[in-house]
Design brief:
The chain is of the alpha/beta class. The chain folds into 2 domains: 120 residues, 3-Layer(aba) Sandwich (Rossmann fold), CATH 3.40.50; 121 residues, 3-Layer(aba) Sandwich (Rossmann fold). The protein has a 10-stranded mixed β-sheet with strand order 3-2-1-4-5-10-9-6-7-8, with helices on both faces. The chain is built from 9 helices and 10 strands. The radius of gyration is 22 Å and the shape is elongated.
Length: 284
Amino acid sequence: MKKILCAIDASTYGPSLCDHAAWFALRAGAAVDVLHVLDRAETGSGPHLDLSGSVGLGASEALLEQLTRADEARGQAAQAHGRAMLEGARARLKAAGVTQVNLVHRHGEVADTLVELEKDADLVIMGKRGESQNFAEGHLGAKVERVVRASIRPVLVAPRVFMPITRVVAAFDGGASATKALDHVLQSPVFAGIEVVVAIVGDPGAQRDARVQAAEGLLAGRPAAAIKALDGDVETALKGELRQGQGDLLVMGAYGHSRIRELIVGSTTTAMIRTGKVPVLLFR
């Protein structure tokens, strides 16, 4: 892992995002690109309010000029705020020990920009809710779904609070994305020395046994990891295995084994991100 792309905004997730980026960067010896994207509406570069009709309602040219200046001032303030957030992120990452921090300030749309820039990164980090949904605890930000659908890189979706990662729970269903996720955990130096639990959920029987055997095959000759066969509903079983807010990381495929790719992320994946308090590392 050489570079991490971390997207921040004005939400309360900012410190946690920086701390997660620092944790991965320090263990991988990676650089961190901190990205802040200004929406065109924030900067005044988007479609302007058409005030020409207001003249017929008695608005003076002076008032129209005043409104135009206010629009420009708002855009300048948004840009200054974005630059200040980036500098704050740099300071936090440097204080954590990250030596290579690059700041990227863009105008446009967050999801599109992340997908554009991720080709030069090995990991994308973002919060599960943006600044407009800070307190919507039951809601998953639409930008997260868009990024996960389009991204070719692993995406870490971070919660509001950072805890140093001491345990990894890898959800394994035998599918391609889950196999890729587990293989990454087993091979990456980032997770060296960290407890790994391979969680296989399903009713007892031949299908679950086959998944256990597939996981055992991936673990052969690799650092020891525990395999746990869990009964019941996938979401409930995984939540029962995770130590919420105590340093666990959930690693899983973005789509289930039997799901045809749709316009939304797999339902179990979405639920685990939306309601959990642990970071989730997703693989396509």
